[in-house]
Amino acid sequence: MLPTPDGGGSSTGEKKGMDTAKVKDINSQLTKEKTNLQAAKTEADAAAKKLQSNWKGPDADRFQNQWAKKSAKIDACINDLNAMTKQLDADITEQDTGSA
């Protein structure tokens, strides 16, 4: 086993740790894409609302019901991604503090 920065060993020979500069860049990209997803979802919600006022009947009702469910799932993904990027920020800070 090779030693790792935390004093442990790795049976695969890989070191543990974080390149905080690179991880910060990746986290910034994830945050940007979360914002893009949020904007796209807002636009899709607006389109579905326009559709609702221009299409009536059982097929339209089915579509709106499906969209409501999918829209909620997209919101959940956005919330999860937000939580993940916040946790990654905390992990970066912890790594920087521990390495100082």
Detail the topology: elements first, then pairings.
Elements: E1 2-3, E2 9-10, H1 20-54, H2 58-99
Biased composition (Gly residues): 1-11
Pfam families: WXG100 (PF06013)
Biased composition (Basic and acidic residues): 13-33
Keywords:
100 residues; mainly alpha; Helix Hairpins; 2 helices; ESAT-6-like_sf; WXG100 family type VII secretion target; T7SS_ESAT-6-like
Description:
Pfam families: WXG100. InterPro entries: ESAT-6-like_sf, T7SS_ESAT-6-like. The chain is mainly alpha-helical and about 100 residues long. It has one domain: Helix Hairpins (Orthogonal Bundle), CATH 1.10.287. The protein is built from 2 helices and 2 strands. It has a two-stranded antiparallel ribbon. A hairpin with a 5-residue loop joins strand 1 and strand 2. Helix 1 runs antiparallel to helix 2. The longest helix has about 40 residues. It is elongated, with a radius of gyration of 22 Å. The protein starts with a strand and ends with a helix. The N terminus is likely disordered.
